[in-house]
């Protein structure tokens, strides 16, 4: 696709502008490093374009802090004070789901917490509440059967408006991959941990 020009143009009755403005469902999967990093990079690009961003982190503990969270939260604060960019929200599974904070046992059942997270995301998609969603490590609740893949695919395919969604994680279900507009399968060639080196600040978090 040289210089961003498609090699083929479908006979779908849409104009170039209409086709360009279609919402994108992206999936970053595979065993290689960088799936979430790439998604958060896209979120920063969306923020710069004035698109409201909502990040939902599955699996990771609500107590963990990652560099991208601090950066994107700061961008959200910048928007509130200056109007630059767009609003940013960041939510984590378990007690990090703000709508479940009254439930002291939210972390006790991870599957139930994942389903509650997805239910809230589905509601927001139905209401077209955000412009750009990152569902980080969402493939795992799907792979483990905590959340129904067919329901997720239906909701994503039928989402109204121009809401972009990026989903990350290994072992993305085939149905999700088939429904996506953009799929990247990251393959590991080498990793410092192969040589016994632990994760480093600024590299892994």
TrEMBL record:
Domain of life: Bacteria
Single GO term (MF): corrinoid adenosyltransferase activity
Transmembrane segments: none
GO-annotated biological processes: cobalamin biosynthetic process
Residue ranges the record marks as coiled coil: none
Protein name: Cob(I)alamin adenosyltransferase
Native source species: Gordonia otitidis (strain DSM 44809 / CCUG 52243 / JCM 12355 / NBRC 100426 / IFM 10032)
Lineage, top ranks: Bacteria, Bacillati, Actinomycetota, Actinomycetes, Mycobacteriales
């Amino acid at each position: 696709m040289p210089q961003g020009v498609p090699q083929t143009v479908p006979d779908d009755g849409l104009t170039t502008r209409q086709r360009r403005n279609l919402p994108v469902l992206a999936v970053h999967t595979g065993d290689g490093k960088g799936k979430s990093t790439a998604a958060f990079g896209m979120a920063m690009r969306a923020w710069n374009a004035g698109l409201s961003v909502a990040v939902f982190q599955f699996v990771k503990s609500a107590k963990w802090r990652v560099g991208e969270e601090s950066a994107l939260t700061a961008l959200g604060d910048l928007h509130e004070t200056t109007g630059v960019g767009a609003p940013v929200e960041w939510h984590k599974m378990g007690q990090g789901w703000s709508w479940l904070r009254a439930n002291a046992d939210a972390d006790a059942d991870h599957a139930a917490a994942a389903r509650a997270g997805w239910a809230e995301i589905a509601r927001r998609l139905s209401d077209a509440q955000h412009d750009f969603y990152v569902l980080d490590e969402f493939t795992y609740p799907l792979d483990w059967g905590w959340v129904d893949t067919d329901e997720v695919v239906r909701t994503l395919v039928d989402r109204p408006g121009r809401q972009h969604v990026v989903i990350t994680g290994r072992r993305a279900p085939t149905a999700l991959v088939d429904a996506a507009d953009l799929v990247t399968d990251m393959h590991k060639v080498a990793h410092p941990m192969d040589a016994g080196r632990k994760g480093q600040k600024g590299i892994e978090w």
